[in-house]
Write a structure and sequence with these properties.
224 residues; alpha+beta; 35% strand; six-stranded antiparallel beta sheet; 32% helix; 5 helices; globular
């Protein structure tokens, strides 16, 4: 693992730790662990479905959905699913896909959908020249039919945040969910800026699950 990767790993964990330390933000962060056989086994036992993703990765590349079903297991990478009768078979196959990269395991969230296609949201928060932070966009990203990753580079469709919430949850939910996203974004930015002075641009990845709960999947930092 190169030095850059190590730094990014540290910051991904450091960012999560900062956010977990706030009682209002922590409930919105899915349980996350470093990938290992023991943590994969435990997480599948607890959650039934998890998502594993590279510590350094973008565009949905390397993101794999893993499920425990009855006595067996399965993993889905883009649109192809493989089934396994044993945990060892599953783990070996994931290891091959992982190619030695550092991975995280996150509790799988069953996202609200539009016509069966999952949707999530990107909120952009940018520091202005006068030092104030401004939310410049709330965008919905709808997965391409047959995929569970919503990335636009994988054929996902872009909607406004309001359209996405209206069509996947309800028209009634729009203003409340957007208000909650703004509140969590501002709170999290305050905490992250205290911990990492010098950040100037943040991209928050949010999801709303089938019961209407808001989750923060990731915060992408870009220095000013």
């Amino acid at each position: 693992m190169g030095e850059g990767q190590g730094r990014q790993l540290a910051s991904k964990w450091a960012k999560t730790e900062v956010l977990l330390s706030h009682s209002q933000i922590a409930p919105h962060i899915p349980p996350t662990r470093i990938f290992s056989p023991a943590s994969l086994r435990t997480m599948l036992q607890s959650h039934g479905m998890v998502v594993i993703k590279p510590v350094c990765g973008a565009g949905g590349h390397g993101v794999i959905k893993v499920s425990k079903e009855g006595g067996g297991y399965s993993h889905t990478y883009f649109s192809s699913t493989r089934r396994f009768s044993s945990f060892d078979g599953l783990y070996q196959s994931l290891n091959t896909l992982r190619k030695g990269r550092k991975y995280l395991i996150q509790k799988g969230i069953r996202l609200a959908t539009i016509s069966g296609r999952p949707i999530d949201y990107r909120v952009k928060h940018v520091k202005q020249p006068d030092g104030r932070w401004l939310i410049t966009a709330i965008v919905g990203r709808l997965a391409r039919k047959g995929l569970f990753v919503t990335n636009l580079c994988r054929g996902g469709t872009s909607l406004t945040g309001s359209q996405g919430i209206r069509q996947s949850v309800s028209a009634r939910a729009v203003s409340g969910k957007k208000r909650e996203m703004r509140m969590l974004t501002k709170l999290a930015t305050q905490m992250l800026e205290n911990r990492f002075p010098g950040i100037g641009q943040l991209g928050f990845d949010y999801g709303i699950d089938k019961s209407g709960k808001l989750w923060i999947f990731e915060v992408n930092t870009r220095p000013q």
